[in-house]
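User: Sequence recovery, please. Input:
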């Protein structure tokens, strides 16, 4: 790659309130990042994750992150299109829909890092990219990087569950809670789901039931059941 590519991005200037320290700007993508194992990605969707906001606010600044060097680009998860691949890249093709799994490959209990996805273009090591089904809608695809793996881990890595077992969870209408409901349904588990009194509504319950929830209680109902 001989020419410099310019990319619009959300750049973080320092720790602080995200709306005060984030700016929209255009930056050059260094062509020297290109090599035979790289891929040129055009990012097309990325959520504003609570994790992103907390990192920008400095809540994790005592942990090693690539936010310790400013300015930097924000964003931990998203979905993009492969526009070009290096000569040594065989698991990706131009036009593939991909997510960046670098957050999971490089992370451990003492390190939180951004994938710097809030940008139009980037050159990325291909081994940190995972291709996904193009039929997945972009909203779902853009949020595959964090919530589903956490939900999967909670169901598989702590207690050996058998088909027909019950799971009790609070915050059932959170992103992770909703994912747990769907995975549990697929695995044959039953779910008892707690929601906050102030968030309780017929439409919310109907949504959770449609996703596979077995039982739903608000906090007051549940307390009355167990006392």
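Assistant: Recovered sequence (227 residues):
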């Amino acid at each position: 790659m001989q020419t410099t590519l310019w990319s619009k991005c959300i750049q973080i200037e320092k720790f602080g309130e995200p709306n005060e320290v984030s700016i929209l700007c255009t930056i050059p993508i260094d062509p020297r990042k290109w090599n035979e194992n790289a891929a040129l990605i055009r990012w097309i969707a990325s959520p504003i994750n609570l994790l992103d906001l907390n990192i920008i606010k400095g809540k994790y600044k005592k942990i090693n992150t690539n936010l310790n060097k400013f300015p930097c680009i924000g964003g931990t998860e998203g979905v993009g299109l492969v526009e070009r691949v290096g000569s040594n890249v065989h698991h990706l093709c131009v036009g593939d829909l991909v997510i960046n799994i670098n957050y999971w490959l490089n992370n451990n209990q003492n390190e939180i890092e951004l994938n710097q996805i809030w940008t139009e273009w980037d050159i990325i090591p291909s081994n940190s990219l995972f291709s996904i089904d193009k039929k997945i809608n972009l909203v779902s695809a853009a949020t595959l990087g964090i919530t589903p793996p956490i939900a999967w881990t909670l169901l598989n890595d702590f207690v050996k569950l058998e088909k027909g077992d019950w799971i009790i969870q609070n915050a059932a209408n959170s992103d992770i809670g909703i994912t747990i409901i769907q995975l549990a349904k697929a695995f044959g588990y039953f779910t008892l789901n707690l929601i906050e009194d102030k968030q309780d509504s017929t439409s919310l319950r109907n949504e959770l039931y449609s996703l596979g929830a077995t039982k739903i209680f608000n906090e007051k109902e549940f307390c009355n059941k167990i006392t």
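The mean pLDDT is 89.
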